[in-house]
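User: Design a sequence. Structure:
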């Protein structure tokens, strides 16, 4: 019924559109202006206003307690439920000549059911302007589906703070009745990376503009008025108006694309197939002149879209080749056919996140989708495989079944972040990519989850209200801790049980919404159908990981067999002020081995216990707990067992599984930071690296030594540390020289390729002459001949070291290459390497470039400044730059893509002196009035971190210095 009605309605609206187009130029003039002066606009109400009156202006007195009107709340009232939308949008890819603004015009109608009588229509709308008079309701058209009477709209107003359009009616909408609200509107097609926005690039010297969207989490309302909450699923009929010669894409298949004349312009009108029932944040609308490649796998049309030259160069081929197999993999994993008839994936030049799982039309950063044998590294390739797997995983988990509210975001993102490894493993089984979750997620998030400023995975629904609170949830806890605990869960349930529960969950809740406990319920049912034995219910076990922040350090005393747990805190002096419902105790699954032999798994269900089998009586037996780091916890041992493990490492390190060698290093360094074991014990775990050839332990060591570099690269420790590390890495460097036949071949294994990069990077960084000659020689060959001889895997490292050793000529050459790069992955390597110069004037000039979006894209500004700060010479320059420009940066970039927390953390990472601490405090004070936006927490964390660093250096500098001196003197 609804559908039939809507088709005819859509045709009707087509007529209105002509008029809207004529008006658009006039409206364009006022779009931005009216947004800016929102507080003075009769119908745009300021945050402190009660709103609702035609006479409401910014002079309305601010009240101390916000008025209790429904539009003062951030959540929609539960009175109206959308069923189906018709949306027509017309983005203009040329600026209006009079105003210079890019705009889009649109019209929408929404069919909704009234579920509770109300005389208000409250619908999300942000930065949209409505045509027609708002004060008398003339701008809106409201009708009743069954033809019964309908109240008229008395007035409408926009409520700025909560991003609502409010319509006051002169009577009630009635429970059980269906209504249709139609509106015409205009918005700015800004380059702000949110909602309906524009992206620009040059092709063959010509500037090109495309229109695209990023709705998640709360920007669908910036494209058209909608009930913009994930539980308000609906059907969408989308039409895009666009220039002849351009392609329009949306979630559904293109049904027809016809030439029409609107407002004297010959344009195309592309109608899309009605979507499935879905959430607004998963919508996508794109107009571009892109090319594409495609195939059909098992009845699903798979297409990859990108700039035409990128498609011609074959840069979409890899993505196309792996999408089919990954989709098939997930169909089996979920036991559910892919829910849509098509799967489009598109690379966007300006894109804030890495990728977005719009249902049927996934958007990517160019670096996350496009692969070129000649330019892309194995790391670029892995990122493409995992990110595609991540987004495809969402097609079911997240899109077909959607969490009811954003407080459960961790389950959506954590789940996709776990299974992305399974999907990528299917595409590239040789890589052993599943192991890498330990470095990229478990170890990564341990670092933040060990601070008192961490937070539990799960938030209360009522605590997550404002768009900024929702955005804050997209953090390492949701992604990496979510992934880590789900991996642990899948492991202790066993994969067949985990997938069985998952499959019945998806089946029960298809096209609807859930809370995270619904998944636990289905997993519990799966457990009960098997003989799996657990110490408690899935819910009770998982709650200890989900409802309290942090994780335990499990201590094994092999002299007695005592096993105990304690909340692990990186700073032992910090105080946990947040109480936990489980008193910071967890139900811990323990997989372990004793001297090469895997033992029966155990559970630690209380603070401490005794496991007799863990008692060691010989002088050579060792106990190793948390095999493959499947458990989300750190492990400490009695001194004797540490000694035996370290002896095993230096005698026959292969006796200890590779992932656990990486774990021993990471645990030791972090236990030392927490003062649980001495720092020299941590340093001892690096002694055996002379004999280590595997990637994961080396990477783990480098991640931890990074902190030593940051703390000591401006002090006398540095020289001795360099000597030691150069000694340690030289055999690895020589090994690669041999296996690559004097650097002429590529190592075969994926991880070996990664470790080759580590070998070169550390050897050059620590001043190994052979390494420096090698990389400078390659770079010079490139500059002299114009042909780049450097393998893509090594490019960043080689560029960085050569630029650091060179001067303006090298820098300018690289800058030119950056500007002319035909693939974003190459540009990214150059952009990062340009920050490696040691010339302050070049670094300062580069800093200036970051705020000029024609030189550095907005999406890349923050990371570029942070790259510069990572350079020991650039550190203070970047800090000065950010301090001096804070006001400008904040006002110019405050609303959009700038990641203030990354910026603040990035430029202060090295801080470890009293002077720096004072500067940081001053910075906080000086800019209190401007504010720090999403970087507010980061400022306080940076102050805390600086103090902790000062303390750490005071306590460790001398020991560490002596240790390095001794280690170099006594060869192992
Ligand atoms: N849903 C996210 C994209 C997103 C992130 C939207 C933040 C809004 C705010 C998407 O599924 C995602 O997680 N993308 C990741 C890549 C992934 C491989 C971790 C990203 O963008 O980094
Ligand atoms: Zn995701």
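Assistant: Done.
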């Amino acid at each position: 019924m609804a559908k039939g009605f809507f088709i005819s309605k859509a045709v009707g609206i087509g007529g209105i559109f002509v008029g809207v187009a004529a008006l658009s130029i006039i409206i364009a003039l006022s779009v931005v202006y009216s947004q800016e002066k929102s507080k003075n606009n009769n119908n745009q109400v300021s945050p402190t206003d009660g709103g609702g009156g035609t006479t409401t202006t910014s002079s309305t007195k601010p009240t101390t307690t916000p008025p209790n009107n429904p539009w003062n709340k951030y959540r929609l009232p539960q009175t109206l439920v959308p069923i189906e939308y018709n949306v027509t949008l017309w983005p203009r890819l040329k600026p209006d000549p009079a105003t210079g603004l890019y705009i889009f015009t649109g019209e929408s109608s929404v069919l909704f059911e009234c579920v509770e009588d109300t005389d208000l229509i409250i619908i999300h709308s942000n930065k949209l302007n409505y045509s027609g008079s708002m004060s008398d309701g003339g701008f809106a058209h409201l009708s009743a589906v069954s033809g019964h009477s309908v109240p008229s709209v008395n007035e409408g107003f926009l409520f700025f703070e909560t991003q609502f359009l409010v319509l006051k009616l002169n009577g009630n909408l009635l429970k059980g009745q269906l209504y249709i609200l139609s509106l015409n509107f205009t918005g700015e097609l800004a380059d702000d990376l949110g909602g309906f926005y524009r992206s620009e690039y040059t092709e063959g010297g010509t500037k090109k503009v495309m229109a695209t969207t990023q709705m998640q989490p709360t920007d669908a309302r910036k494209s058209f008025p909608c009930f913009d909450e994930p539980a308000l699923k609906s059907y969408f009929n989308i039409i895009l108006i666009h220039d002849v010669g351009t392609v329009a894409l949306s979630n559904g298949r293109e049904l027809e694309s016809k030439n029409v004349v609107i407002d004297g312009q010959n344009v195309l009108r592309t109608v899309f197939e009605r979507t499935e029932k879905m959430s607004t944040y998963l919508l996508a609308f794109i107009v571009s002149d892109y090319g594409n490649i495609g195939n059909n796998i098992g009845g699903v049309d798979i297409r990859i879209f990108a700039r035409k030259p990128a498609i011609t160069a074959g840069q979409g081929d890899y993505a196309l080749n792996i999408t089919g197999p990954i989709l098939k993999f997930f169909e089996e994993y979920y036991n559910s056919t892919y829910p849509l008839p098509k799967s489009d994936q598109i690379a966007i030049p300006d894109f804030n996140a890495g990728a977005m799982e719009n249902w049927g039309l996934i958007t990517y950063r160019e670096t996350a989708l496009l692969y070129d044998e000649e330019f892309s590294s194995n790391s670029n390739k892995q990122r493409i495989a995992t990110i595609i797997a991540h987004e495809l995983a969402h097609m079911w988990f997240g899109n077909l079944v959607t969490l009811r509210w954003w407080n459960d975001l961790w389950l959506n993102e954590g789940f996709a972040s776990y299974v992305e490894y399974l999907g990528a493993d299917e595409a590239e089984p040789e890589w052993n990519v599943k192991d890498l979750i330990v470095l990229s997620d478990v170890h990564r998030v341990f670092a933040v989850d060990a601070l008192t400023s961490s937070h539990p995975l799960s938030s209360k629904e009522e605590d997550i209200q404002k768009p900024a609170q929702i955005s804050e949830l997209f953090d390492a806890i949701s992604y990496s801790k979510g992934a880590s605990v789900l991996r642990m869960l899948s492991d202790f349930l066993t994969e067949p049980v985990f997938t069985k529960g998952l499959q019945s969950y998806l089946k029960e809740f298809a096209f609807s919404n859930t809370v995270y406990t619904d998944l636990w319920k289905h997993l519990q049912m799966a457990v009960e159908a098997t003989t799996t034995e657990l110490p408690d219910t899935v819910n009770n076990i998982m709650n200890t990981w989900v409802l309290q922040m942090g994780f335990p350090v499990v201590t094994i005393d092999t002299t007695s067999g005592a096993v105990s747990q304690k909340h692990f805190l990186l700073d032992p002096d910090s105080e946990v002020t947040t109480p936990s419902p489980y008193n910071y105790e967890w139900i811990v699954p323990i997989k372990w081995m004793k001297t090469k032999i895997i033992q029966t798994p155990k559970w630690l269900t209380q603070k401490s216990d005794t496991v007799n089998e863990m008692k060691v009586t010989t002088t050579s037996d060792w106990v190793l707990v948390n095999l493959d780091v499947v458990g989300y916890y750190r492990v400490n041992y009695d001194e004797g067992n540490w000694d035996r493990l370290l002896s095993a490492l230096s005698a026959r390190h292969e006796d200890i599984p590779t992932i656990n060698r990486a774990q021993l290093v990471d645990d030791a360094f972090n236990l030392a930071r927490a003062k649980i074991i001495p720092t020299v014990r941590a340093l001892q775990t690096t002694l055996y690296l002379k004999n280590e050839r595997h990637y994961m332990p080396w990477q783990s060591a480098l991640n931890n030594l990074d902190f030593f570099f940051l703390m000591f690269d401006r002090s006398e420790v540095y020289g001795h540390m360099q000597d030691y590390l150069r000694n340690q890495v030289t055999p690895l460097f020589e090994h690669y020289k041999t296996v690559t036949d004097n650097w002429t071949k590529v190592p075969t294994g994926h991880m070996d390729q990664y470790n080759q990069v580590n070998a070169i990077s550390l050897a050059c960084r620590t001043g190994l002459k052979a390494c420096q000659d090698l990389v400078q020689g390659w770079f010079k060959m490139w500059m002299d001949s114009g042909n780049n001889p450097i393998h893509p895997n090594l490019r960043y490292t080689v560029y960085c070291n050569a630029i650091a050793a060179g001067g303006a000529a090298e820098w300018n050459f690289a800058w030119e290459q950056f500007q002319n790069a035909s693939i974003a992955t190459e540009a990214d390597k150059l952009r990062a390497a340009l920050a490696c110069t040691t010339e302050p004037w070049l670094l300062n000039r580069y800093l200036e470039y970051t705020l000029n979006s024609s030189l550095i894209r907005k999406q890349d500004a923050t990371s570029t400044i942070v790259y510069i700060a990572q350079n020991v010479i650039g550190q203070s320059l970047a800090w000065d730059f950010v301090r001096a420009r804070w006001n400008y940066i904040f006002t110019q970039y405050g609303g959009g893509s700038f990641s203030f927390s990354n910026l603040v953390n990035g430029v202060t990472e090295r801080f470890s002196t009293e002077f720096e601490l004072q500067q940081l405090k001053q910075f906080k004070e000086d800019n209190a009035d401007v504010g720090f936006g999403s970087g507010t927490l980061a400022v306080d964390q940076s102050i805390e971190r600086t103090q902790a660093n000062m303390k750490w250096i005071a306590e460790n500098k001398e020991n560490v210095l002596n240790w390095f001196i001794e280690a170099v003197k006594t060869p192992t």
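The first strand starts at residue 44 and ends at 45. The mean pLDDT is 92.
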